[in-house]
C-alpha cells in the first residue's frame, strides 16, 4: 500500500519521476502536448515563490475559479506547498454566487481561467478580501496579473522551466506541512441545500488516496482524462491518485470536448459519473434504432453478452464463437467510444443504475462503482478488480468503519473523514453522532460479505400519506435506462401516490417521431402528442412492472425542456437538483394531485 502523509508527498512523487509526460494539455492549435515532471516541479516552485512574495502564509485561502487545465494543478500544488488552503469554485457559478464564497472564505488571491471569469470576479471584488487576481490565459485584464508573468516560459509547452534541479528552501517548506494541516476548503450545496464549507486536511486526502488504489494495478504507462470538474473532490482525488502512480493526466476543459479527447488520448483508466455511461449507452441505442438490421444486431449482441455475464464479471474473456463475433461487431465499437484502451471503468459521484451496470456487462465491460462524499475525501467504499459485487459500491476501505443507524442511515468513521464545516464547531451534533460517527445522509445496508449498498439520500426519500417510504433514485434510474428518457424526477412526498416528471432525450425522441410520421414543429407540441404520450406510458408501465404497488408511478408528465448544468436542474456532477426541479415544475406537480382527495392512488 502507498504511504503518503500529505498531498505534498504526492507532488514530490511527480517531481522525482523524471518523466516526459506527467501532464498532457492542448496547445493553441488544439494539438496535445506533454508537460514533463521537471516542468511541473519548476512551475509550481516559481508560482509558490510569487505567492510567498505577496505575503501569502500558511492557512491563507487561495481561490481557483477555472475549467480543468494544467494551470489548475500547478496553482493547487503551489498553494499546498506553502501551507495555504485552496478554495475551488465552479466556473459555472454567477458573479453573485462567487462573491459569497470568496467573502465567506476570506480568499486573498483568486486564480481565474480567462477573461470571462475575471469579469465576474472583478465585478464583485469590492465585496471580498481579494488582493490579487491571476488570469491563466495569456491576456491582459485591468488589475489582474498574468499567470505567465509568474511562471516564465509556461506558455511554451516543452519550453523553459524544465530544469531538474531542486530548490532546497521550497522543498523544506513543502515537507514541513503536516497531515493535520488544512489543504482545501470545498463548498458544497449538494442537491438540496445552501453552500457549506468542507475543510479537508492533507492527511484526510492523502490517506484516502493510499487506500482507494488498493487492488488497482496502475503504472507510468497508464493515462486518465481529467474532465470531471476539479472543483469537485472526486476529480481532485482521481488526479492525485494518477499522479501518485506516476501515470499521465490529460486535461479536458469541457464535457463536449470529451469524445475527441477520448479518441486522441486513448486513456487506460476512466472515472466518470453515471450520466456519462448512460449517454454512451443511449447513443449506441439511438444509432441502432436507425435501421432494423442494426437494431436486430445490437439486440442479438446484448442477448449473447448476457449469457456470458458471469465471465465478464470475473474479468474473463469468453471463448464462445458467438461472443467473439458479437465483440467484433458491437462490443468493440462501444469500447471505442471510450478510446478503445480503457482497462478500468469506474463510476462515482452518483448511483449507477443496475440497468446500466447490466447493459455494460452485456457488452463486455465491468463498471466498478464506488461511493463517497466531499466530507470523506471522498472515497468510503469502492469495487476493485479483487473485490467486486454488482449492485454494491464495494467494500469499505480498510480504515473506514461503517455502522447502520436504526433509521437505516449510514454512519462512518475513519482518517479520511473531515472534522467539521468551515466556521462551525468541530463534530457538530447535526453532522456527527457521538463519539465521532459522521452522518452521511445516505440510506444503506451491508451484506454478509461486507459489501456496501446505497439506496438513496435520506432527505430525498418520499413518504406517502399512507406512511410508505419510496426511494426515488432507483426508480428514476430505471426510467433513464430507456433510450427516450434523458432525466426523470419522482415526486409524491406526503401524497397518496408517486408521480414522475420526465425530461425526454430529444435527440432520440425526434428521430422516433420522424419514423412514426409525427409532425410537431415545437417541443411543447411534440411532448403533448397523444402518440408520444402513449410511448412513454409504455415505458412507465414497464418500469412499474418491477415495483411494489405503493412505488408505482401513477401519473407522469413530459416536460418540453432539457435538464442540464447550464439550465440549473443538474449539479456539476450531473446529479438531479431536486429542490430546483420541484420549484420549477410546481404547477405540473400540483396538477398530479388536484383530484387526490377523490382518486384511488
Radius of gyration: 25 Å
Task: Kindly state the percentage of residues in helix.
Answer: 25-40%
Number of helices: 21
CATH architectural grouping of the largest domain: 3-Layer(aba) Sandwich
Would you identify the CATH H-level superfamily of the largest domain? ANL, N-terminal domain
Strand line-up in the sheet with most strands: 4-3-5-6-7
Question: In terms of quaternary structure, what is this?
Answer: single chain
Strand proportion, as a percent range, falls in 15-25%
- Outline: globular
The averaged pLDDT comes out at: 94
For the record, the CATH class of the largest domain is: Alpha Beta
User: What fold name goes in the CATH topology slot of the largest domain?
Assistant: Rossmann fold
How would you sum up the major sheet? 5 strands, parallel
Helix/strand/pairing category: alpha/beta
Unreliable runs: none
**Total separate domains:** 3
Structure write-up:
This is Long-chain acyl-CoA synthetase. Residues 20-422 form the AMP-dependent synthetase/ligase domain. It holds the Pfam family AMP-binding. The chain has 601 residues and is α/β, with parallel strands linked by helices. It is built from 21 helices and 26 strands. It has a 5-stranded parallel beta sheet, sandwiched between helices. β19 and β20 (437-446) form a beta hairpin. α8 (202-212) packs across α9. The model has no long low-confidence stretch (mean pLDDT 94).
Amino acid at each position: 500500500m502507498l504511504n503518503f502523509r500529505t498531498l505534498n508527498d504526492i507532488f514530490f512523487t511527480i517531481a522525482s519521476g523524471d518523466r516526459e509526460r506527467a501532464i498532457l494539455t492542448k496547445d493553441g492549435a488544439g494539438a496535445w502536448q506533454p508537460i514533463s515532471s521537471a516542468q511541473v516541479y519548476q512551475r509550481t516552485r516559481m508560482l509558490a515563490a510569487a505567492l510567498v512574495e505577496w505575503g501569502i502564509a500558511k492557512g491563507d485561502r487561495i481561490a481557483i475559479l477555472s475549467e480543468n487545465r494544467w494551470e489548475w494543478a500547478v496553482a493547487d500544488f503551489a498553494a499546498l506547498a506553502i501551507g495555504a488552503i485552496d478554495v475551488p469554485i465552479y466556473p459555472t457559478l454567477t458573479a453573485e454566487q462567487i462573491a459569497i464564497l470568496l467573502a465567506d472564505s476570506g480568499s486573498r488571491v483568486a486564480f481565474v481561467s480567462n477573461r470571462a471569469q475575471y469579469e465576474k470576479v472583478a465585478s464583485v471584488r469590492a465585496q471580498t478580501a481579494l488582493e490579487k487576481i491571476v488570469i491563466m490565459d495569456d491576456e491582459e485584464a485591468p488589475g489582474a496579473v498574468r499567470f505567465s508573468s509568474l511562471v516564465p516560459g509556461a506558455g511554451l509547452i516543452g519550453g523553459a522551466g524544465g530544469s531538474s534541479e531542486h530548490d532546497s528552501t521550497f522543498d523544506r517548506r513543502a515537507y514541513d506541512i503536516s497531515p493535520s494541516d488544512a489543504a482545501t476548503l470545498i463548498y458544497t450545496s449538494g442537491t438540496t441545500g445552501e453552500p457549506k464549507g468542507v475543510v479537508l486536511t492533507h492527511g484526510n486526502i492523502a490517506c484516502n488516496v493510499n487506500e482507494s488504489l488498493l487492488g488497482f494495478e496502475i503504472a507510468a504507462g497508464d493515462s486518465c482524462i481529467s474532465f470531471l470538474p476539479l472543483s469537485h473532490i472526486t476529480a481532485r482525488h482521481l488526479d492525485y491518485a494518477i499522479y501518485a502512480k506516476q501515470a499521465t493526466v490529460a486535461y479536458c476543459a469541457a464535457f463536449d470536448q470529451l469524445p475527441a479527447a477520448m479518441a486522441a488520448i486513448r486513456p487506460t483508466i476512466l472515472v466518470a459519473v453515471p450520466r456519462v455511461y448512460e449517454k454512451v449507452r443511449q447513443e449506441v441505442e439511438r444509432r441502432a434504432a436507425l435501421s432494423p438490421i442494426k437494431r436486430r444486431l445490437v439486440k442479438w449482441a446484448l442477448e449473447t453478452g448476457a449469457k456470458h455475464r458471469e465471465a465478464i464479471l470475473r474479468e474473463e474473456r469468453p471463448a464462445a464463437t458467438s461472443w467473439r463475433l458479437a465483440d467484433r461487431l458491437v462490443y468493440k465499437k462501444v469500447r471505442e467510444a471510450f478510446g478503445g484502451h480503457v482497462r478500468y471503468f469506474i463510476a462515482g459521484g452518483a448511483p449507477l443504475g443496475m440497468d446500466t451496470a447490466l447493459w455494460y456487462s452485456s457488452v463486455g465491460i465491468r463498471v466498478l462503482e464506488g461511493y463517497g462524499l466531499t466530507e470523506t475525501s471522498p472515497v468510503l467504499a469502492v469495487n476493485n478488480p479483487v473485490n467486486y459485487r454488482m449492485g454494491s459500491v464495494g467494500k469499505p476501505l480498510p480504515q473506514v468503519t461503517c455502522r447502520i443507524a436504526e433509521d437505516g442511515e449510514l454512519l462512518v468513521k475513519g482518517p479520511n473523514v473531515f472534522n467539521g464545516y468551515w466556521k462551525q464547531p468541530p463534530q457538530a451534533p447535526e453532522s456527527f453522532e457521538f463519539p465521532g460517527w459522521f452522518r452521511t445522509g445516505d440510506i444503506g445496508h451491508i451484506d454478509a460479505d461486507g459489501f456496501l449498498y446505497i439506496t438513496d439520500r435520506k432527505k430525498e426519500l418520499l413518504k406517502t400519506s399512507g406512511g410508505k417510504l419510496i426511494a426515488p433514485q432507483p426508480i428514476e434510474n430505471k426510467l433513464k435506462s430507456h433510450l427516450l428518457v434523458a432525466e426523470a424526477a419522482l415526486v409524491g412526498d406526503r401524497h397518496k401516490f408517486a408521480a414522475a416528471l420526465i425530461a425526454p432525450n430529444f435527440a432520440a425522441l425526434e428521430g422516433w417521431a420522424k419514423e412514426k410520421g409525427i409532425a410537431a414543429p415545437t417541443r411543447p407540441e411534440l411532448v403533448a402528442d397523444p402518440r408520444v404520450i402513449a410511448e412513454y406510458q409504455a415505458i412507465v408501465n414497464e418500469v412499474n412492472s418491477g415495483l411494489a404497488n405503493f412505488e408505482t408511478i401513477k401519473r407522469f408528465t413530459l416536460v418540453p425542456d432539457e435538464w442540464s448544468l447550464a439550465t440549473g436542474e443538474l449539479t456539476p456532477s450531473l446529479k438531479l437538483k431536486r429542490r430546483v426541479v420541484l420549484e420549477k415544475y410546481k404547477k405540473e406537480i400540483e396538477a398530479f394531485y388536484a383530484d387526490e382527495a377523490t382518486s384511488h392512488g
